[in-house]
Amino acid sequence: LLLGPPPPPLESREIPTPAAAAAPTEEIDRRRNLAIISHPDSGKTTMTEKLLLYGGALQQAGAVRQKAEQRSTQSDFMEMERERGISISSTVMNFDYEGYRLNILDTPGHQDFSEDTYRALAAADNAIMLLDAAKGLEPQTRKLFEVCRLRGLPLFTFCNKMDRPALSPYELMDQIQEEFNLESFPVLWPIGDGDRFKGVLDRMEDVVHLYQKPVKRGGKAEVVLIPFNDTAKLRELINDEELYNKLIEDHELLNELIEPLDMDRVLDGELTPLFFGSAMTNFGVQLFLDKFLDMGTKPTSRDAFTKDTTDGSGNDDDTNIVSPQFQEFTGFVFKTQANLDPKHRDRLAYVRVVSGVYEKGMKVGHSRSKAGKKYNLAQAQALFGSDRSSIDVAYPGDVIGINNPGMFGIGDTLFTGADRVAFPGIPSFSPEKFCYIRSPNPSDYKSFRKGIDQLLQEGAIQALRQRNDDGGGPLMLAAVGELQFEVVQARLKNEYKVEALMEPLGYTLARWADGGWDAVDKADADGKLFGIMIVQDRWARPVLLFRNDWKASSLTEDEKDLQLSPWSQ
Ligand code: GDP
């Protein structure tokens, strides 16, 4: 997993937060943003559905389930997603529960869309890692975990499917420790597994939750609470001598072995609170939700660059921390999408609100536009998969969808006030798949170009061309995963009604030559670029395509003047 460039180190100072039009503290405090990461089939759809049910979002939960039954998820609104039952683009779901506002950022499960996941995680404040307790860590959990670690997110681990034969909880803890070098803190501890899954010990309260089978699938499980020290009652209700003895033993062992919970380490992503349950039969989900709301972080401060425009110099770049209480509105785009609703043919930018209050019709500055230029945020939308509703106000932690006339790109900051604010850009992944793409029907060319241009703007794929090509030559696409090409093809067909032919290229890695064209020419003249394809990106910067890692690393070492780097700066 190679991505960059990393945000430059920041020297920070807190931006003063006058009381003016800051977001109300209670609105900030009640918000929790989370993204669920998991290997496909671990139960993310089921878990999301259950969480929505607890939030009383019955209708939405129904939609999740309905689509889940078609092997798809609530957020799978694109044709291809439905066909394949994979979640490609991330969306947002929100609901209220016990006074909290939860924003769930859905992340695509398939590894070819890791970049989209990374962006969703850039907008999340907390991550939940869902494991299938019978399988433990799986390939996709590993990849996504890396992404979480890069973001430094607090990570909560839920071991699902305890109603089926599971690995021992100690084994699961060992896996997390050994593979991720991450300590876990069991908050809940399971009593049995499979048919003998009786419930969980809440180690924070020293109370045992024993579950009765839920009346119907999807209903809330009936729970009996017993203080751990009421051993007679416990023994009677567990009604399984072996499990009872094991519980007593585990309780003692854990208290001896595990240090008290250090929330600072959780918030720094060094320690993961660990939970056990069964999303399908609804065991432990509500308990998990309650604990998560208590332990998870509310919307956090973020580093930003601010350019003080008040002295007119325009070059006075400071680095600051923008706290959610900052009185100006700030937010950043983490995803853009065209044709979310094919009927409307519109383009949306998803904005994560970082500070202040979004109000309908407000005017904002844009980090990449000229100072002083303002855009009208006329009609923001709350998003729920493919459904949306118009909203008048949004607070830090919320995600809003705004109409994107085309200039809002991923990583861009929107802000009110005289001072320019720019959050560090969201790094992109270095592409590893390349193909030629063309339209077989010359008469479709215009629609084909339009479609390609709009899809490129979403930032999921990049376009490359041959050197000195001013637009007439063959178009090459570069992406992280093969499926991304298929999405382009499918979307061109569905949304722009044009066919596209693709021809894969055998290159596996791209390096941008920051040394410029002169350096490339020199290396080429010296015969160093044999077998390497030389192309340009959309800013006409030189890019070299390699067939293998070895060649790329040796050239990076040997030809320092090329200044090869794995991403576009
Ligand atoms: P996703 O691919 O991660 O979204 O997983 P799904 O939520 O679609 O679940 C995959 C399969 O596992 C489905 O057949 C679910 O019914 C099943 N499943 C989910 N959670 C549980 C659970 O807690 N116990 C059991 N036994 N099955 C579960």
TrEMBL record:
Subcellular location: Cytoplasm; Plastid, Chloroplast
Keyword Transferase: no
PROSITE patterns reported for this sequence: G_TR_1, G_TR_2
One term under GO cellular component: cytosol
Region Disordered: start-end pairs: 5-25
InterPro entries xref list: EF-G-like_DII, EFG_III/V, G_TR_CS, P-loop_NTPase, PrfC, RF3_C, RF3_dom_3_sf, Small_GTP-bd
Low complexity composition bias: residue spans: 15-25
GO molecular function, one term: GTP binding
Keyword vocabulary terms for this entry: Cytoplasm, GTP-binding, Nucleotide-binding, Protein biosynthesis
Chief localization: cytoplasm
Presence of keyword Hydrolase: no
All copies of domain Tr-type G, residue ranges: 29-300
PANTHER family from the UniProt entry: PEPTIDE CHAIN RELEASE FACTOR RF3
NCBIfam families in UniProt: prfC, PRK00741.1, small_GTP
Family: Belongs to the TRAFAC class translation factor GTPase superfamily. Classic translation factor GTPase family. PrfC subfamily.
Protein name: Peptide chain release factor
